[in-house]
Backbone:
């Protein structure tokens, strides 16, 4: 081998080594970038704290934490935090103030797992929130989330306000409202999932955002009711770990949820 050939061979090996180092460096940077794209990476104090939930219904639609059969007078127009606290205390020995939402994910809105695939139970120390309630109506109807506001008795009174997910936490913790999901499973109906401030679809689970006006369709129909026949509805609230906003920034945020429901008669976009 001549001196020139030796030098050329050495330069080529050096160039290959530089390309290899550059390639590995890019992979490392990409890996470090995507590791904080979703899911909390630090579990200490992870979760959403200070949780509030208010539920109201339209005039022909009522709700209760218990099944009272067809006795509609036993149902009301609101579910309060006190009612939810009683539900949690009786079944889980905790209150809403003890609820810490940790990132979970689901492909069907029923079974939830952590990032490592471990199945999560509802209302655990750090998991997702779930409760059951019973809806009843004075006539057949489809039930939707509504943007209509409600008075102190839970009756809707205007076309503004209504369903809203909010936070008092400053930025970037305020991104928690975009990582939140709320699922509704009426007995005998498919799961429907509300994604507040929905942008681009980020998971395999289909989601919707309530319409900006009085237009309702099958995509945002939560469940159906028959006249004076109560229906059990399971409501689930979670932080979607696969959402791009579900990163370290939203740890220790607070979350406030107000849900307003409205009944729509069959074949109509007009609230009852």
Residues:
């Amino acid at each position: 081998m001549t001196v020139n050939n030796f030098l050329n061979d050495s330069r080529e090996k050096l160039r290959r080594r530089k390309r290899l180092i550059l390639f590995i460096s890019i992979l490392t940077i990409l890996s470090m970038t995507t590791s904080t794209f979703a899911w909390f990476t630090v579990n200490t104090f992870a979760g959403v704290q200070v949780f509030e939930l208010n539920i109201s219904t339209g005039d022909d639609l009522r709700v209760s934490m218990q099944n009272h059969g067809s006795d509609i007078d036993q149902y009301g127009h609101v579910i309060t935090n006190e009612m939810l606290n009683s539900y949690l205390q009786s079944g889980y020995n905790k209150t809403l103030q003890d609820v810490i939402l940790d990132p979970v994910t689901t492909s069907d809105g029923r079974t939830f797992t952590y990032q490592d695939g471990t199945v999560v139970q509802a209302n655990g120390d750090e998991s997702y929130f779930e409760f059951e309630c019973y809806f009843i109506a004075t006539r057949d109807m489809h039930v939707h989330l509504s943007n209509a506001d409600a008075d102190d008795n839970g009756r809707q009174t205007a076309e503004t306000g209504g369903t809203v997910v909010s936070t008092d936490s400053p930025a970037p913790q305020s991104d928690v409202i975009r990582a939140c999901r709320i699922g509704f499973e009426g007995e005998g109906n498919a799961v429907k999932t509300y994604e507040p401030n929905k942008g681009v679809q980020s998971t395999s689970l289909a989601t919707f955002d309530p319409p900006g006006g009085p237009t309702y369709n099958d995509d945002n129909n939560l469940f159906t009711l028959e006249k004076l026949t109560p229906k059990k509805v399971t409501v689930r609230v979670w932080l979607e770990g696969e959402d791009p906003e579900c990163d370290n920034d939203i740890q220790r945020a607070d979350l406030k949820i107000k849900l307003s429901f409205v009944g729509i008669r069959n074949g109509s976009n007009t609230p009852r």
